[in-house]
Amino acid sequence: MRITRPTTRKLFAGVTLTALSGVAIFGGVFAWRTADSARGAAIVGQNVFQIAYQPVCDGVGPAPADPDTGEAIPCLTLIGYNGNTTKVGEGYGKNTGDFDLSVVGGRVAIRQVISPVSPAAAVDDLDADLVAPDLRSCTVDDFAGDVRLANPGEVIPPGGEGGKFGASLKVSESAPRDCQGSVVVYRVTIVAENPDPSTDPALSVR
After folding, report:
1. Mode of pairing for the β-strands spanning 49-55 and 161-171
2. Contacts of 190 (CB under 8 A, 6+ apart)
């Protein structure tokens, strides 16, 4: 059996290939690095949304007090009769915050029903053939509110205005006669939120 011994040239070539393969695997180990840093600070912005609301003022009666603040509400809207829905006001939103806002909904909450000082004639005073006995008292459950947005999804930029809406009240079909002459105090709430950053270029990385 003949044993072939590597020559010096072959041995050097083998060692060189092994060394090069090590460089390929561990490339960058011997690289020189440098770096620098800087300090920064950020403040989280705020959402600030206000509405301008103009009620319809075509009713006559004493100004009720807001049950939450005690302030007088000088404007009354005439609503009724049973089953009717009446527009009671309209408005729009103001974005005084730091980010885009989009109006996404709203609601009208019935806060209080104030009975009249001089209620309608009692059932006993009327012909029983014309009016069925209905002695139940009027409550907040005899009314319902609704908000309709003019442009759902409209984006309001900081410092801008938009999100027009209308508010309405409905008298229940089964509201008792005791509701006649009552004053209904309501509160309109409009909800706005930040648009999805993935669909709003203004909120993407700058």
Report:
1. unpaired
2. 49, 51, 91, 93, 103, 105, 106, 147, 163, 165
**156 DSSP 8-state letter:** E
Q: Classify the C-alpha dihedral 68-169-139-189 as positive or negative.
A: negative
| Among candidate residues 148, 81, 143, the one with its CA nearest the CA of residue 111 | 143
Q: What are φ and ψ of residue 185, in 5° steps? A: -100, 125
The CA-based angle 81-190-141, given to 5 degrees, is: 35
Q: Name the DSSP letter for residue 91.
A: E
Q: Is 199 exposed, middle or buried (0-12, 13-18, 19+ CB in 10 A)?
A: exposed
Decide: 185 and 112 in contact? Cβ < 8 Å.
Answer: yes
Write the pLDDT tens digit of every residue in 32-86: 999 999 999 999 999 999 999 999 999 998 889 998 889 999 899 999 999 999 9
CB 190 within 8 A of CB 106: yes
Backbone dihedral region for residue 14 (phi beyond 0: left; psi -120 to 50: alpha; all else: beta) = alpha
pLDDT tens digits, 149-186: 999 989 999 999 999 999 999 999 999 988 999 999 99
Q: Strand, helix or coil at 13?
A: helix
CA distance 167 to 54: 10
Residue type, 84: N
Q: What does pTM read for this prediction?
A: 0.73
User: What whole-number distance in Å separates Cα of residue 68 and Cα of residue 72?
Assistant: 11
